[in-house]
Amino acid sequence: MKTLLLKLAGPLQSWGTHSHFEVRNTDPYPSKSAIIGLIAAAYGYRREGSDEDIERLNRLDFAVRIDQPGNLLQDFHTAHPVSSKGDIRQAYVTRRYYLQDAIFVVALGGDDEFIDAVLRAVSHPYFQGFLGRRSLPLLDDFILDISGKGVIEAIQSAPWQAADWYKKKHRTSQYDAEIYADANLAENQQTFMARDRAVSFSQQHRLHGFRPVVRIREVMSHAVSETDHDVFSSLGGE
Questions:
Q1: Which of 33, 71, 156, 187 could form a disulfide with 196 if both were Cys (CB 3.0 to 4.6 A apart)?
Q2: How far is 198 from 209, CA to CA, in rounded Å?
Q3: pTM: predicted TM-score of the whole model, two decimal places
């Protein structure tokens, strides 16, 4: 049993599970279907490919921890549809939502061979991964760690990934990170149903099912890393 830990961070992220037409929402944390889509892209699976490949990825144990929730941003886009003759039709406005400065830790668990294969795929992806939208690239610290622990134990023991400025805001108050995990990974927890189980990523028949999820709270350490930055040393001072 191994667990792959991934870090999702960037100026903007967007993780919608129920967007329609001109309004593109984001959930407060990445969905399992979004991460399965990211892994499928790394493998090189096509949208019209085999749904059995997606089902195999669904068997990965999954949990996500909110290390820094970020702020909600609403953005306006204007779209100009073009007819088959090249005529520009009337423009319409779309509203798109993003999370600013959010940081998440994702844990994916499975047998050793499966996790090693996933690690190779995300290390050398066939298609570029992104943070919910193609314009939001992954950062270079995306691959966080490999653990020999189970998913829940691994994500609970992973260091808090929030930025130092955010940790300083919680020096005098406790920060409880929320963890959302597959319900079968934690006993005696209240469950709810989330519609983020990927069934098909086909453009014509995109389909998602439900899966039971549990929410767990984890108290994070307040440790803030010290910096070696010294602006006066560059000026020749001591």
A1: 33
A2: 6
A3: 0.86
* Each residue's pLDDT expressed in tens, for the chain with a length of 238 residues: 999 999 999 999 999 887 777 888 999 999 999 999 999 999 999 887 777 889 999 999 999 999 999 999 999 888 787 888 888 878 888 899 999 999 999 999 999 999 999 999 999 999 999 999 999 999 999 999 999 999 999 999 999 999 999 999 888 778 999 999 999 999 888 899 999 888 888 777 778 889 999 999 999 876 555 555 555 555 554 4
> Tokens 């399992």 correspond to what residue?
32
